[in-house]
Amino acid sequence: MNRTHLLFELDALLNASSFKDYCPNGLQVEGVDSINKIAIAVTASLAVIEAAANWGADALLVHHGYFWKGEAAPLTGMKFERVAHLIRHNINLIAYHLPLDAHPTLGNNAQLGQKLGFTAQGQLLSQDLVWHGLSDCRTLGELAGRVESVLGRTPTLIGAPDALVGKIGWCTGAAQGFITDAAAFGLNTYLSGEVSERTFHEANELGVHYLACGHHATERYGVQALAAHISAQFNLECRFFDENNPI
Questions:
Q1: Which of 9, 92, 139, 219 is placed for a possible disulfide with 31 were both Cys, Cβ 3.0 to 4.6 Å?
Q2: Domain positions in the chain
C-alpha cells in the first residue's frame, strides 16, 4: 500500500487534525514508499525497532513516538540511535498519541473498558479522554483482581479492598491527574496507568478510590485494535511486538 494513502486513511479514521497534542501525529520518520508489513508496538524503543527490522517491517505503528513538546531537539545519544536505526532499515515511523487514546471504538480507553468488562456511559472532558460507567465488580478487591487477571499486572490500590466500586472512571497512561475531575463528576472509583505521590492524598481527601494499573499495560490494546482494523481493510500484514515493561 502506498504510504501517502495509508497515512490519509489513518489520519481520517482517527480525526488526527482535531487534536492539540504533545507530539506530531502521523508520519514521524520517513521510510520506504510502499508498505506491506507493519510492526505494531506501544512505544518506539530501540528494542522494538530492532525486532521490527529483523521481521522485515516497512513501517512501525506506535502510540508513543518521538519529538515530544519540550524535549531537546538535537538528534544525539538515545534519540540518534533510534532514528538512525529506522533510517538504516528504511522503516516508516507512524505514531498517534491522543487520537488513539480518544477513538470511540479503537482507542485505548474504549479498548481497556471492553477488556475489563466496564459498561461505558460517556466521557468527562474535552477530546473524550476520560470515560465513565459501571463495573460488574462489586468491591475494589474484586476489581483489582480483574485488572491483574486481564492485564497481567498487580495494580497499586488506594482504598480498602472491601470498599464498594460504585461509579467508575478510567483513562489510560499517565492520567492520574484527572482524579480531581472524576471526583467533581461524582465518581467513586478512578483507574489509570500511573500514580504520583500526590495521588495518594488526592484520592483520600477527595473520597475517590484509585487504581494505578500500569502505563504500558493499559495502553497495549488501542494500537492492536487499530492494526486489526487496517489489516482487514487493506490486507496488510501486522504483528504486535510487546515489550515486558512493568511501568
A1: 92
A2: 3-100, 108-218
| Model pLDDT for residues 90-106, shown as the tens digit of each residue | 999 999 999 999 999 99
Please state, in angstroms and rounded to a whole number, the distance separating the CA atoms of residues 12 and 5. Answer: 11
Please, what's the largest Cα pairwise distance for the chain? 56
Average pLDDT over residues 114-129: 88
Average pLDDT of every residue of the chain: 97
CATH no., domain 3-100: 3.40.1390.30
Class of domain 108-218: alpha beta
Contacts of 54 (CB under 8 A, 6+ apart): none
Half-sphere CA count of 36, side-chain side, radius 13 A: 2
Cell numbers linked to 70: 519540550
CA 81, chain centre distance (Å): 24
Length of the chain, in residues: 247
Average confidence (pLDDT) over 101-123: 97
| pLDDT at 126 exceeding the cut of 90 | no
